[in-house]
C-alpha cells in the first residue's frame, strides 16, 4: 500500500489519473494538492470525493511549508501541477516560471530532504518542433529545444529533476508525452474548444493554415503509462509517451469533429497564427514499449467520438467552466 501525493490533481490529466488510480489500486492513499487556478476544478473529481484514501488539500506548490508537510507524509510524488496553456505563456510567462520551475524545485528539495521518490509529468514540447518534410519523431535522446515560454519552463523543470537525480541520487522518473485529449479537458485547448464552440453554435478558430500536426494521446493511455513507469520505470530515466495517430493535422481533426456533430466546414474560421507556432510533434514510444510493455490502446477516431459524446452529455460541466475568468480571457483573445 502506498501513499501518493498528486500535485495538480484537480486539472485535466491529474483528475483522470486520480480516478484511474483509485479504481485500479484500491487500498492506496492519495493526497491531491491543488491551488485551484482557473484550470483546477473539483467538479472533475466528484466521484473520488468521499472515497476512502482520497483527500484534497487546497494549496500552492510554491508554498514551501505546505509542500514539505505533505511530502513528509507520503511515499511518492506524482507531479502534474503546472500552468499548461501555450497561448497564455505567450501573453505572460510569469506564473509559468513560478509554478513550473520554482514549484518543481521546491518539490524536489522536499523529496530529497525526506528521501521520497518523484515522478515528473512533462511534455514533448521540450524538444521543440519537427518539420512536415521529415518522418522524424522525438525520442529520449532528442536534444531540448523549447520554443514557447511554456515549453521553456517545462524544459527547465525537467533539467532540475535530472540535476537532483545526478547530484543527490534522488529517485526520479520523467514522462514526456504528446497532446492529451479526453473528458474534463479545459475548453481552452484545441479539441474541447472546438467541440464546445460547435455545441454552442460558434465557429472554431483555426490558427494559421491549420496544417499543424499533433500526436494525440487519449488521457487513459497516458495514465496507464504513468502507472507502468511507477511499477517498472528505472530511476533517472525519461520515457516518451505518444498516442495512436499517425499524422493528423488540426484541419483534419476539426473535420472529424464537424462530421461527428453533423455540421459543415463553414464553421471553420481561420484566424491569426500563434506566434512561434510549432509545426509538428510526434513521439517515438519504443523505449516505453521495450522496458515497460507500454502501447497506446485507444484508437484516435473511436475515442474522439467518445470525447465528443462526453461533452454532449456534460454540458453543465463545460458551461460552468466557460464562464467567469475563462470567458474574460477568451474575449480578450478573440473579441467575442
Ligand atoms: P491543467 O491546466 O488542466 O491542470 C493543471 C492543474 O494544476 C490545475 O488543477 C491547477 O489548479 C493546478 N495548479 C496550477 N498551478 C498550481 C500551483 N502553483 N500549485 C498547485 N496547483 C497548481 O493541465 P493538464 O493538461 O492536466 O496537464 C497536467 C500536466 O501534464 C502538466 O504538467 C502539463 O505540462 C503536462 N502535459 C500536458 C499535456 C496536455 O496535452 N494537456 C501534454 C503533455 C504534458
Ligand atoms: O483555438 C485554437 N486553434 C488552433 O488552431 C487552439 C487553442 C489551438 N489551435 C492549434 C494550436 C496547436 O497546433 O491546435 C493545436 C493544439 O493546440 P493546444 O490545444 O493549445 O495544444 P498545444 O499547444 O499543442 O500544447 C498541448 O500539448 C502539449 C498542451 O496544451 C500542453 O500542455 C502540452 O504540453
UniProtKB/TrEMBL annotation:
Enzyme class: lyase
A molecular function (GO) term: dTDP-glucose 4,6-dehydratase activity
Cofactor: NAD(+)
Reaction(s) catalysed (UniProt annotation): dTDP-alpha-D-glucose = dTDP-4-dehydro-6-deoxy-alpha-D-glucose + H2O
Superkingdom classification of source: Bacteria
PANTHER family reported for this sequence: DTDP-D-GLUCOSE 4,6-DEHYDRATASE-RELATED (PTHR43000)
The entry's keywords: Lyase, NAD
Annotated family: Belongs to the NAD(P)-dependent epimerase/dehydratase family. dTDP-glucose dehydratase subfamily.
Keyword Lyase: yes
Record bears the keyword Translocase: no
EC number assigned by the record: 4.2.1.46
Stored NCBIfam families: dTDP_gluc_dehyt (TIGR01181)
Entry protein name: dTDP-glucose 4,6-dehydratase
One of the GO BP terms on file: nucleotide-sugar metabolic process
Pfam families: GDP_Man_Dehyd (PF16363)
Location of the NAD(P)-binding domain: 5-307
Amino acid at each position: 500500500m502506498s501513499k501518493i501525493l498528486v500535485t495538480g490533481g484537480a486539472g485535466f490529466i491529474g483528475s483522470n489519473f486520480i480516478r484511474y488510480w483509485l479504481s485500479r489500486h484500491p487500498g492506496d492513499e492519495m493526497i491531491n494538492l491543488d491551488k485551484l487556478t482557473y484550470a483546477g476544478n473539483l467538479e472533475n473529481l466528484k466521484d473520488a470525493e468521499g472515497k476512502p484514501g482520497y483527500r484534497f488539500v487546497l494549496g500552492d506548490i510554491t508554498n514551501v511549508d505546505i509542500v514539505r508537510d505533505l511530502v513528509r507524509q507520503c511515499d511518492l510524488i506524482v507531479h502534474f501541477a503546472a500552468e499548461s496553456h501555450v497561448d497564455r505563456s505567450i501573453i505572460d510567462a510569469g506564473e509559468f516560471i513560478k509554478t513550473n520551475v520554482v514549484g518543481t524545485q521546491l518539490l524536489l528539495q522536499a523529496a530529497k530532504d525526506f528521501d521520497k521518490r518523484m515522478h515528473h509529468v512533462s511534455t514533448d514540447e521540450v524538444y521543440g518542433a519537427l518539420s512536415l518534410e521529415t518522418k522524424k519523431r522525438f525520442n529520449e535522446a532528442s536534444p531540448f529545444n523549447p520554443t514557447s515560454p511554456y515549453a521553456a519552463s517545462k524544459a527547465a523543470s525537467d533539467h532540475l529533476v535530472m540535476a537532483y537525480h545526478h547530484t543527490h541520487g534522488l529517485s526520479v522518473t520523467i514522462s514526456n508525452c504528446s497532446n492529451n485529449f479526453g473528458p474534463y479537458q479545459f475548453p481552452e485547448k484545441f479539441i474541447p474548444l472546438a467541440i464546445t464552440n460547435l455545441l454552442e453554435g460558434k465557429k472554431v478558430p483555426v490558427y494559421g493554415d491549420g496544417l499543424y500536426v499533433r500526436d494525440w494521446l487519449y488521457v487513459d493511455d497516458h495514465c496507464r503509462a504513468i502507472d507502468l513507469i511507477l511499477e517498472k520505470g528505472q530511476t533517472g530515466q525519461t520515457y516518451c509517451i505518444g498516442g495512436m495517430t499517425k499524422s493528423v493535422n488540426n484541419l483534419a481533426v476539426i473535420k472529424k469533429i464537424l462530421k461527428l456533430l453533423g455540421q459543415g466546414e463553414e464553421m471553420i474560421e481561420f484566424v491569426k497564427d500563434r506566434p512561434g507556432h510549432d509545426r509538428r510533434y510526434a513521439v517515438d514510444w519504443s523505449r516505453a514499449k521495450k522496458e515497460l510493455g507500454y502501447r497506446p490502446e485507444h484508437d484516435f477516431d473511436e475515442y474522439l467520438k467518445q470525447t465528443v459524446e462526453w461533452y454532449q452529455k456534460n454540458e453543465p460541466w463545460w458551461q460552468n467552466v466557460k464562464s467567469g475568468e475563462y470567458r474574460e480571457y477568451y474575449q480578450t483573445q478573440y473579441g467575442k
